[in-house]
């Protein structure tokens, strides 16, 4: 009996410690967000107050209202959303097919190609600004959505290919072979069998593409130059002047831009549950 | 249903020759089992027939039609894979109807075919379940059901029972035999398990190192193995082999190998003079090593020492050492001797096999 009690006590302590660590980590991540939220609610005359309360005295949504009314924030948000969604869909489509080829077919340069893709990820983003700028300029796509979409899609492609290739490698080939015998083409087997089974990896690739494109600043700074075409990252910096920065609006904008990312994360979380291939082969 | 012909099939993976000129004719409605050890090329041969593997040389004909370049789906074959290969994102019903839906078969027809197959395989209760919710045996049934609904010309089974436990394997073996009687289909079945081959096959194709060793009915390959490999591969427990030399003593042939010495009568080896001085391997199945008894068609007595007894229930395995040669004899239980005691044994001439030592080919009748 006493031994069982000891085991139960040890379990309880372990349970408590795990939750303590989880709560502390969650607090660490949520706290800055709460501070921004607090700043966004402050009235204009209390922006530099050292008050730490979450809902400040005289809390107001005036910063949100003026951000939406007096600036082109909604337009910037729309630009960002358009570019990000297009980038994510194009990026995932290209990566899923390229990764399939890398996973399933033998061709000259396969290994070199994979290493090249990986090494391209090791180049700092800043170094790619100039080549990207030259490329987009030569394509006459400066200050356009298409220019941004191309720049973003290609830069996140290597990561997506690696993620998807790794996942495809775990799907037994016999599933495709069974589909071939059942009457699909190779493309059909990919479309009907491999893609539906790869939703966890596809969601990760989609999320990566989405968050990277959504938060990107450097490339946007170089490619876009008219305020109408700005993404929200550029737009928010418009609020920062030489003599005055509108911190209230800045914080309000920061809060609003987290909503789409949050929605995408919540929606795709159900697809992230892997283990879908369990039970397909062997017992 | 259909006939299948393999003509001079060669398969190379880079420099590795996997199949070297395979010729087999499989008749309509025949149940052929291709058996051989791992890496002998049997699965590759099956995959080539299914269209999942390129053919380096030779041709495959289904119903007289060359299918070398035909897409797998156009060959009118259905395959049951070793690992079942059920689509994990589809229910049992969707798995079974997948091929028919691809062909845009009429819905009513699909339902009746799935229903029929599910009834045969006792899967009706599981139609709405996902593969991960099924046991190994049930998954195997679904894989077979998926093949049945297509009504193919040829069924291909690639080691379908190798992932099941012993009891389930036995049950499924009986199920497959019953299924064959019911479907009366052309079935090509690949396995490394000679028990499956013996029990299921109408004809067995035995392969080793990419070459066909023998083709024949189970009883033919058991009673008259064409070479040393087949003799050792077919039959459980495996055959005893004794190597030695033949010499002519008057009119009869005498086999001498270490401490073993016995005559070989003319009904086992004709034309005694021809074999004088020949190096041979003599094969005798454990059932034909008679311990402590004689028969009129039995060799001269040989004295040995009993090493180990293994009681199997109704039978008993006796490991006996004769000089340097170790022999296995299977006798009725219970053999009333303790290990270490001397036993006398003889070999049943009726089932004695003699192979040339150099060519390993059968030379006895």
List the defining traits of the structure above:
heterodimer, A: 283 residues, mainly alpha, MetI-like fold, 2 domains, 12 helices, 0% strand, disordered C terminus, B: 365 residues, alpha+beta, Rossmann fold, OB fold (Dihydrolipoamide Acetyltransferase, E2P), 6-stranded mixed beta sheet, 5-stranded antiparallel beta sheet, 20 strands, 35% strand, elongated
Task: Describe it.
The complex is a heterodimer of chains A (283) and B (365). With 283 residues, chain A is mainly α. Chain A folds into 2 domains: 2-60; 68-268, MetI-like fold, CATH 1.10.3720. Helix content of chain A is 73%, strand content 0%. Chain A is built from 12 helices and no strands. Chain A has helices at 2-41, 62-70, 73-104, 110-120, 125-138, 145-170, 173-182, 186-197, 199-215, 218-223, 232-238, 247-268. Residues 275-283 of chain A have low confidence and may be disordered. In chain B, the strands form 4 sheets. A 6-stranded mixed sheet of chain B has the order 6-7-8-3-9-10, with helices on both faces. A 5-stranded antiparallel sheet of chain B has the order 13-12-11-14-20. The longest helix of chain B is centred in the middle third of the chain and has 18 residues, at 166-183. The chains are: A mainly alpha (283), B alpha+beta (365). The A-B interface holds A 172, 174-175, 177-185, 188, 193, 196-197, 276-283 and B 50-52, 71-73, 77-79, 81-89, 98-99, 102-103, 130-137, 139, 146, 150, 163-164.
How much helix, percentage-wise, in residues of chain B? 10-25%
According to CATH, what is the topology of the largest domain in chain B?
Rossmann fold
CATH level 1 name of the largest domain in chain A: Mainly Alpha
Q: What strand line-up does the widest sheet of chain B have?
A: 6-7-8-3-9-10
- The overall strand count of chain A is 0
CATH-scheme architecture of the largest domain in chain B: 3-Layer(aba) Sandwich
Query: How many domain units of chain B?
Result: 2
* Strands of chain B, count: 20
What is the CATH topology of the largest domain in chain A? MetI-like fold
The count of helical stretches of chain A stands at 12
The biggest beta sheet of chain A is recorded as:
none
The residue ranges of chain B in which pLDDT falls below 50 over 5 or more consecutive positions are none
How many helices of chain B?
8
């Amino acid at each position: 009996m006493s031994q069982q009690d000891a085991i139960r006590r040890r379990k309880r302590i372990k349970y408590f410690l795990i939750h303590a660590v989880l709560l502390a980590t969650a607090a660490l991540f949520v706290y800055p967000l709460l501070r921004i939220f607090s700043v966004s609610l402050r009235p204009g005359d209390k922006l530099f107050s050292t008050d730490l309360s979450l809902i400040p005295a005289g809390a107001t949504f005036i910063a949100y209202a003026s951000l939406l009314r007096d600036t082109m924030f909604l337009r910037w948000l729309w630009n960002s959303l358009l570019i990000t969604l297009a980038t994510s869909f194009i990026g995932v489509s290209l990566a899923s097919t390229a990764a399939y080829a890398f996973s399933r077919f033998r061709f000259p340069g396969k290994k070199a190609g994979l290493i090249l893709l990986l090494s391209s990820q090791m180049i700092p983003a800043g170094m790619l600004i100039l080549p990207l700028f030259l490329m987009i300029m030569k394509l006459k796509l400066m200050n356009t959505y298409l220019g941004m979409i191309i720049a973003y899609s290609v830069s996140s492609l290597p990561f997506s290919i690696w993620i998807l290739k790794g996942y495809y490698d775990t799907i037994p080939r016999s599933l495709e072979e069974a589909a071939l015998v059942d009457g699909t083409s190779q493309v059909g087997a990919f479309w009907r069998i491999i893609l539906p089974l790869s939703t966890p990896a596809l969601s990760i690739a989609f999320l990566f593409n989405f968050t990277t494109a959504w938060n990107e600043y450097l490339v946007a700074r170089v490619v876009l130059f008219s305020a109408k075409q700005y993404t929200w990252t550029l737009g928010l910096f418009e609020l920062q002047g030489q003599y005055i920065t509108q911190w209230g609006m800045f914080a309000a904008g920061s809060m609003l831009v987290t909503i789409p990312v949050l929605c995408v994360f919540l929606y795709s979380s159900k697809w992230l549950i892997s283990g879908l291939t369990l039970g397909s082969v062997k017992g | 249903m259909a006939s299948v012909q393999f003509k001079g099939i060669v398969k190379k993976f880079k420099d590795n020759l996997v199949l070297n000129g395979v010729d087999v004719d499989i008749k309509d409605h025949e149940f052929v089992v291709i058996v051989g050890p791992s890496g002998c090329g049997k699965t590759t041969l099956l995959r080539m027939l299914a269209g999942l593997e390129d053919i380096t040389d030779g041709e495959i004909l289904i119903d007289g039609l060359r299918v070398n370049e035909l897409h797998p789906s156009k060959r009118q074959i259905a395959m049951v894979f070793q690992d079942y290969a059920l689509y994990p994102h589809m229910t049992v019903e969707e798995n079974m109807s997948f091929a028919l839906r691809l062909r845009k078969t009429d819905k009513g027809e699909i339902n009746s075919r799935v229903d029929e197959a599910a009834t045969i395989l006792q899967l009706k209760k599981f139609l709405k379940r996902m593969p991960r919710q099924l046991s190994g045996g049930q998954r195997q049934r679904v894989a077979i059901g998926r093949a049945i609904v297509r009504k193919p010309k040829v069924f291909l089974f690639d080691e379908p029972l190798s992932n099941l436990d012993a009891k389930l394997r036995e049950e499924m073996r009986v199920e497959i035999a019953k299924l064959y009687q019911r479907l009366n289909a052309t079935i090509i079945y690949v396995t490394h398990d000679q028990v499956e081959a013996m029990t299921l096959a109408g004809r067995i194709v035995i392969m080793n190192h990419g070459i066909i060793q023998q083709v024949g009915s189970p009883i033919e390959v058991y009673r008259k193995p064409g070479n040393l490999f087949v003799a050792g591969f077919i039959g459980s427990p495996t055959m005893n082999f004794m190597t030695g030399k033949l010499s002519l003593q008057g009119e009869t042939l005498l086999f001498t190998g270490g401490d073993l010495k016995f005559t070989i009568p003319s009904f086992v080896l004709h034309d005694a003079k021809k074999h004088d001085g020949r190096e041979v391997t003599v094969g005798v199945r454990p059932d034909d090593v008679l311990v402590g008894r004689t028969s009129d068609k039995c060799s001269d007595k040989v004295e040995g020492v009993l090493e180990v007894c293994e009681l199997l229930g109704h039978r008993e395995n006796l490991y006996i050492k004769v000089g340097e040669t170790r022999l296995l004899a299977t006798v009725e239980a219970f053999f009333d001797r303790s290990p270490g005691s001397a036993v006398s044994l003889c070999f049943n001439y009726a089932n004695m096999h003699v192979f040339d030592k150099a060519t390993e080919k059968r030379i006895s009748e």
